[in-house]
C-alpha cells in the first residue's frame, strides 16, 4: 500500500490529493448510512486521523451535525492541512454524543498496543449502541497480521481505502469488521503478490466431451468409509466426468452413480486415464494408509491431499513426488502438523502458509473462516463464507470439490480457488444448519451460479 501510494506521489499526485479522495469517497458511504443523523468522527494523530477531518468537513458541507473527538492534535503535515480545513467543533473528551460514529484513530500506521486516551475511546465505542464505521481498518487492528492490539470493537461497516489490506481477510480482525467495502482512490495496484480471489467462471462441457475427457477422479478410501463418500458426493457435482472410489470394502450406502473398485490397489491406480487423485479423508494412519499414499504420490498425477494424508506425508515421500502437481488443504491443526513435519517455525496462519509453500513447493489451501491460498504466483484471500460451515465433514466435501476441479484441468491452484467459491456458494444455498451431506448436494445448484 505504501509502495502504491509512493508511486502515485512520484507520478505527481500529492499526498493531500490522495487523502482528499479517500476522505471524500468514505464520506459518501458515511452519508448513505447516516441518512441525516448526527455523526461523531474520532480522529487520531496520523493520516488516518487526517482522513477523519476530511470526512467531517465533507459531512458538514452537506449540512450534517458533526462532532470531532481528537485526544491529540495531528502530527503529520497532510493531516494538519485536513484539520485546518475543518471549522466545526473538535473536542478531546470521551463523550460520544451521536448515533453514528466514524473511527479514524489509527489506520495501517498502528504499530503497537493501543493505550491511554485512545484505548478509553475505543472502550466507550465498544459499549455504545451507535452505528460504528471503521475507516481503512478498525483502529486497534494491525493491518498486516489481523491481530487486535487493543479494546475489541464490533463494527457495522469497514471502509478499506485504496486497496484491501491483509487484515480485511484474516481472523480475528475480519470478524470485527461488519460489512466491508472498498473506496477507490485511483492507485495502480498491478503485480501485487497478494489479492482477493476473483469470482471464477465455469463453462458447460465441450460439445465433444466424454466422461474421460472431462476428467477421471480416483478417491482413495481407507479405514473410515464416511469421509471419502462425502468427498465423492461433492466431487460428482463439481465437474469431473467420472468419479471412482478405490476401496477394499463394499459400500452398500454409496450412490449408484459412484463407481467402487475393489481389488489390487497397485493395479487400480495404474490406470493412466486417471487425471487426479484425492487421498486423505478417512484414509487412516496405519502402515497400509502410508503405503497407499506413497504409491499415489509416486504416480506424479495431480492430487489433493487432505485429512490423514497431511499427518502421514513427509520429506521422503515428497522427494518421490512432483510437488508442483499437489495441493494440500489443511485446517488449523493440520497446518500445525505440516509445519512441524517440515520444520517451519512461523506462528501466524499467513506466515505458516507461505513458509510451507516455500519449503515444499506444494500449493497450500489453509482453511478456516479466513481461508488463504498460497501458490507459486500468488497469495489469495476470499470473501467470508457461511459460519454454518463449521460442522463435521464439510472439509471432506471441499476436498472432493477441489479434486474434481483438478481432474478437469490439472491446475492445483485454480482447483483450490474454484473449490472455495463453490463450497461457499453451496453453503449459502444450503444454509442454515446444514449437514455435510446437504452441503455436498448443494454443490450442483452452486455450480449454476458460476456458469
Ligand atoms: N499515505 C497516503 O498517501 C494515504 C494514507 N491514507 C490514510 O493514512 C493511513 C496511514 O497513515 P499513517 O501512516 O499516518 O498512520 P496512522 O494514521 O494509522 O497512525 C500513525 C500514527 O499513530 C501513531 N501510533 C501508532 N500506533 C499507536 C498507538 N498504539 N498509540 C498511539 N499512537 C500510535 C504513530 O506514531 C503515528 O503518529 C491509512 O490507514 C489511511 O487511512 C489515506 O489518506 C490515503 C492516502
Ligand atoms: N466459522 C467458519 N466460517 C466459515 N467457514 C468455516 C468456518 N469454520 C469452518 N469453515 C470451513 O469449513 C470447512 C471445515 O473443514 P474441516 O475442518 O477439514 O472439517 P472436517 O474435517 O470435519 O471435514 C473448511 O472448508 C473451513 O474453511
Ligand atoms: K481506523
TrEMBL record:
Domain YjeF N-terminal: 1-193
Binding sites annotated in the UniProt record for (6S)-NADPHX: 47-51, 107-113, 136, 227, 282, 331, 396
Residues at which AMP binds: 367-371, 395
EC number: 4.2.1.136, 5.1.99.6
Binding-site list for K(+): 48, 103, 139
Catalytic activity: (6S)-NADPHX + ADP = AMP + phosphate + NADPH + H(+); (6R)-NADHX = (6S)-NADHX; (6R)-NADPHX = (6S)-NADPHX; (6S)-NADHX + ADP = AMP + phosphate + NADH + H(+)
GO molecular function, one term: NAD(P)HX epimerase activity
Pfam families: Carb_kinase, YjeF_N
Family that this chain belongs to: In the C-terminal section; belongs to the NnrD/CARKD family.
Subunit comment: Homotetramer.
PANTHER family: ATP-DEPENDENT (S)-NAD(P)H-HYDRATE DEHYDRATASE, ATP-DEPENDENT (S)-NAD(P)H-HYDRATE DEHYDRATASE FAMILY MEMBER
Function recorded in the entry: Bifunctional enzyme that catalyzes the epimerization of the S- and R-forms of NAD(P)HX and the dehydration of the S-form of NAD(P)HX at the expense of ADP, which is converted to AMP. This allows the repair of both epimers of NAD(P)HX, a damaged form of NAD(P)H that is a result of enzymatic or heat-dependent hydration.
Protein name: Bifunctional NAD(P)H-hydrate repair enzyme
Lineage: Bacteria, Pseudomonadati, Pseudomonadota, Alphaproteobacteria, Sphingomonadales
Amino acid at each position: 500500500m505504501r509502495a502504491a501510494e509512493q508511486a502515485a506521489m512520484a507520478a505527481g499526485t500529492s499526498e493531500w490529493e490522495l487523502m482528499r479522495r479517500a476522505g471524500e469517497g468514505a464520506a459518501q458511504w458515511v452519508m448513505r448510512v447516516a441518512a441525516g443523523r448526527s455523526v461523531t468522527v474520532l480522529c487520531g494523530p496520523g493520516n488516518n486521523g487526517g482522513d477523519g477531518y476530511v470526512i467531517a468537513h465533507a459531512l458538514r458541507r452537506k449540512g450534517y451535525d458533526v462532532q470531532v473527538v481528537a485526544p491529540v492534535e495531528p502530527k503529520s503535515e497532510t493531516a494538519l492541512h485536513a484539520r485546518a480545513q475543518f471549522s466545526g467543533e473538535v473536542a478531546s473528551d470521551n463523550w460520544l454524543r451521536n448515533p453514528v460514529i466514524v473511527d479514524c484513530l489509527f489506520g495501517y500506521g498502528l504499530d503497537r498496543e493501543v493505550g491511554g486516551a485512545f484505548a478509553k475511546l475505543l472502550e466507550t465505542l465498544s459499549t455504545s449502541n451507535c452505528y460504528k464505521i471503521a475507516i481503512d481498518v478498525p483502529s486497534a487492528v494491525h493491518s498486516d497480521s489481523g491481530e487486535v492490539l487493543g479494546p475489541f470493537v464490533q463494527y457495522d461497516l469497514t471502509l478499506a481505502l485504496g486497496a484491501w489490506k491483509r487484515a480485511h481477510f484474516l481472523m480475528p480482525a475480519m470478524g470485527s469488521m461488519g460489512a466491508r467495502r472498498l473506496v477507490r482512490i485511483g492507485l495502480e495496484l498491478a503485480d501485487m503478490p497478494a489479492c482477493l480471489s476473483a469470482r471464477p467462471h465455469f463453462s458447460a462441457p465441450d460439445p465433444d466431451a466424454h466422461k474421460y475427457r472431462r476428467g477421471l477422479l480416483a478417491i482413495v478410501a481407507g479405514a473410515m468409509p464416511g469421509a471419502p463418500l462425502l468427498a465423492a458426493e461433492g466431487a460428482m457435482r463439481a465437474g469431473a466426468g467420472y468419479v471412482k472410489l478405490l476401496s477394499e470394502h463394499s459400500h452398500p450406502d454409496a450412490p449408484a452413480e459412484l463407481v467402487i473398485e475393489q481389488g489390487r490397489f497397485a493395479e487400480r491406480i495404474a490406470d493412466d486415464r486417471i487425471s487426479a487423485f484425492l487421498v486423505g479423508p478417512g484414509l487412516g494412519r496405519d502402515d497400509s494408509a502410508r503405503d497407499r499414499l506413497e504409491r499415489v504420490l509416486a504416480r506424479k498425477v495431480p492430487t489433493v491431499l487432505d485429512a490423514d494424508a497431511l499427518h502421514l506425508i513427509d520429506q521422503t515421500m515428497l522427494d518421490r513426488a512432483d510437488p508442483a502437481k499437489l495441493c494440500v488443504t489443511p485446517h488449523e491443526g493440520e497446518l500445525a502438523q505440516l509445519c512441524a513435519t517440515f520444520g517451519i517455525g512461523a506462528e501466524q496462519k499467513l506466515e505458516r502458509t507461505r513458509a510451507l509453500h516455500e519449503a515444499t513447493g506444494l500449493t497450500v489451501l489453509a482453511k478456516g473462516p479466513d481461508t488463504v491460498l498460497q501458490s507459486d504466483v500468488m497469495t489469495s484471500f476470499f470473501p467470508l463464507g457461511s459460519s454454518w460451515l463449521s460442522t463435521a465433514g464439510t472439509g471432506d466435501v471441499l476436498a472432493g470439490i477441489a479434486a474434481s476441479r483438478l481432474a478437469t484441468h490439472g491446475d492445483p491452484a485454480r482447483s483450490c480457488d474454484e473449490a472455495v467459491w463453490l463450497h461457499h456458494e453451496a453453503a449459502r444455498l444450503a444454509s442454515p444448519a446444514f449437514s455435510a451431506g446437504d452441503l455436498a448436494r448443494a454443490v450442483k445448484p452452486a455450480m449454476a451460479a458460476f456458469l
